[in-house]
Write a structure and sequence with these properties.
The protein is an alpha/beta fold. Helix content is about 10%, strand content about 30%. The chain has a six-stranded mixed sheet with strand order 2-5-11-10-7-8.
Length: about 280
């Protein structure tokens, strides 16, 4: 599934934090980001910071791939194994990327929780740019989750206990051409072991920052239980390049994941505003 992601100019800042848990909304503050996609016409990664990033095939669960930020950026897709109990799907800031979700497509194992975190403060209003989540089970079109507006820093979540395919979208996005997200849920035995994950890193996700802030985020991202697995630079118009990070996080607690994601989103927002 190839998805094009347009990179747009960066502007000013603002900050706010929120949290939406399960079918309800929950608020607080802390650390996290995520967003990725492909540069149209790009065939090879422009830049990776990790030498461990190759995506390979595996004939045995013990010899699976590692996260490759370039590959994820090209496809806007992630594949997780049973070590990952939580996937953070980022609703990115439109000043960085014009994309609804990062990743847009995910393969997860049964029992994995997906947390949609709103990191978009592009309107710089007191509550940021509100978004929502609508989740549908493809087999029978049953609506499993519908949220109201999710403020900047808040999140919505759902635990996928049944194998199958699911579609999610943002009801606040009125563009009929906006791509919808997909979740493919498989049994743990069908998921090759990902060597970037382990039982102590329960959460995975994506973050995007301005590429000219890479040195800062390389130094400060690995805090509060986060670990950078790989990163990738996507050239943008007029030098507005972005850096995509693939990360894992030690915490598996809902409130901690949401709060820390919100905090990191605020760090990103602050740096956008400094330009």
């Amino acid at each position: 599934m190839n998805i094009s992601l347009s990179i747009i100019a960066l502007t000013v800042s603002a900050a706010a934090i929120l949290v939406l848990s399960g079918a309800g909304i929950h608020s607080s503050v802390e650390t996290v980001y995520a967003q990725v996609n492909v540069l149209p016409g790009t065939e090879e990664p422009a830049n990776t910071t990790s030498s461990e990033g190759g995506v390979g095939s595996s004939t045995a669960p013990t010899a699976g791939p590692r996260f490759n930020a370039g590959d994820i950026a090209q496809t806007n897709s992630m594949k997780l194994d049973s070590d990952v109990h939580n996937l953070v799907v980022l609703i990115p800031d439109k000043r960085l990327v014009n994309q609804g979700f990062l990743p847009l497509d995910a393969t997860i194992v049964e029992g994995t929780k997906v947390i949609w975190s709103n990191a978009d403060n592009s309107t710089m209003s007191p509550q940021g740019t509100p978004h929502g989540i609508s989740l549908v089970q493809d087999s029978d079109n049953q609506v499993l989750l519908t949220t109201g507006t999710i403020p900047f820093g808040d999140a919505a979540q759902y635990t996928f206990d049944t194998a199958g395919t699911y579609t999610f979208s943002d009801p606040t996005n009125t563009d009929p051409a906006a791509p919808k997200g997909k979740v493919n849920v498989i049994a743990p035995a069908n998921a090759p072991d990902n060597l970037s994950t382990n039982s102590s890193q329960a959460t995975a996700g994506l973050f995007v920052v301005q590429a000219d802030e890479k040195d800062y985020f390389d130094q400060h991202f690995n805090t509060l239980g986060y670990h950078i697995e790989d990163s990738y630079m996507i050239p943008g118009p007029e030098g507005n390049d972005i850096q995509v990070y693939v990360y894992t996080q030690k915490s598996g607690k809902d409130s901690t994941i949401i709060d820390r994601t919100a905090l990191k989103s605020t760090f990103v927002d602050d740096h956008i505003g400094e330009d």
